[in-house]
Amino acid sequence: MQEAPVKVLLVGVDIGEETDFEHSMEELASLAEAAEKEVVGQIVQRLDHVNKALYIGTGKVDDVRRLAEERGAQEVVFDNSLTPSQVRNLGKELELTVIDRTNLILDIFAIRAQTREAKLQVETARLQYMLPRLVGMYDALSRQGGASGSMSNKGTGEKKLELDRRKIEHRITELKKELEDVSRTRDVQRRKRQQSRTPQVALVGYTNAGKSTILNRMVEQFGELPEKTVMEKDMLFATLETSVRSIDTGHNKPFFLTDTVGFIHKLPHGLVKAFRSTLEEVKYADLLVQVVDFSDENYRQQMQVTADTLKELGAGDIPQIVVYNKADKCGMEPLPQKRQEHWYLAAGQNTGIRELAEAIEQQVYADNVDCTFLIPYSAGNVASYLMEEAQVFSTEYREDGILIHADCHRQDMERYKDYVVH
User: Fold this and answer.
1) Residue 198: pLDDT above 50?
2) The domain containing residue 340 runs over which residues?
3) Does the annotation place 326 within a ligand binding site?
4) Where in the cell is it found (predicted)?
């Protein structure tokens, strides 16, 4: 029997810094649902600045307590990051579990994590978040640690708080070592892809914009293994794994397509740090495909969040194709459309996928040239290389060698220029 979802009350403070505070609260509700919680109400307050001790005004604390009791809320979720002292003070005043937006996103990541790497990253971020907040987890800071178990050699006079802090710090060190091992494996895989000279393309953008849907439609149509699709769902942070698939539209111009973790407004810095090795796949891409949910009225702000996050990752200057997805929900037709180098399509309807794939192919192979080689039979390895790596239009076996007309990378033309005839 499935457990009933935890009931939560949402609380937000508008100090005039948000371009769209209402949307931020709507997104908080969506995050709560993605964390498998039930929203039973919300309270907002407009202030010049947040209360350093309680985040909200002292009078508003009573309103929150009263509404939480009326609605049967078990947790109170705040729209912004709270300081450790604010969490502690609010917990005492409300006598309820208090979590902030960062903690909520960590909960979602913990639920969604499937691979070993994702689980390690989430645990690292969660422990780093917990460390400065340990004080608030104890009613009495002077509570002493017992002389039992693995901690018995620490001495009975050491506080429980200090013991737990030491345990967490030790665990974080262990996790970082494990992540370094995983990262080395990822680096090896990345280097192999780079050595193959196959262009690398990364899908980036706000969470739930449709990146995984685009990857899946391309894999189904052009992938080496059509069944190698990834999870796609109309939900924030449906997937956390970075998946790489080989795509070839049939022109012998393959490219690697990477699906990345979605970005979000106020994405916790700790998560960006923990997932940095995963997100760094973006840095090595030859082309970024920014996927935008065109049906979301806040799509421009979401694009700014994407731009800011890419800049933080050191990927802000990589060439981009912008894809306005879900354009069918805006009544736009016919689809797909291309306007000023931007694509409008509907990945969910499988509309515009081929056109997008060919646009990607055209851009990442822009350095290719059309040329003809006459390769002597004594250099058969060169002929074999071109037949495998280039798009060969024709091959003619003559007395003086193999005449190959092909579309190849400019570097290959330079490398084998002695064999170029025209």
Assistant:
1) yes
2) 198-365
3) yes
4) Cytoplasm
In 72-208, which residue ranges form alpha helices assigned H by DSSP?
84-94, 101-112, 116-130, 160-195
Annotated binding residue at 230?
no
125 and 67 in a single domain? The answer is: no
- 259 among the known binding-site residues? yes
Is 209 labelled a binding residue? yes
Q: Residue 95: inside a domain, yes or no?
A: yes
- Report in angstroms the alpha-carbon separations of 76 from 11, 87, 176, 402: 7, 10, 32, 74
* Residue 422 near residue 409, CB atoms below 8 Å: no
Is 211 labelled as part of a ligand binding site? yes
Sheet containing 368-375: order of strands? 368-375, 401-409, 391-398
What's the pLDDT tens digit per position in 326-365?
A: 999 998 989 999 998 899 999 999 999 999 999 999 999 9
Q: Does residue 187 form part of some domain?
A: yes
| More confident position, 271 or 11 | 11
Ligand-binding annotation for 261, yes or no, is yes
115 known ligand binder: no
Give strand pairing partners of 403: 374, 396
Residues 6+ apart with CB under 8 A from 95: 65
Task: Classify residue 151: in a domain, yes or no.
Answer: no
Say yes or no: 130 and 221 in one domain.
no
- Residue 173 annotated as part of some ligand binding site: no
Query: In the block, which residue shows the tokens 């994590």?
Result: 113
In a domain, 120, yes or no: yes
| 325 annotated among ligand-binding-site residues | yes
CATH number at residue 373: 3.30.70
pTM above 0.85, yes or no: no
Are residues 212 and 361 both part of a single domain?
yes
Domain tally, the chain: 4
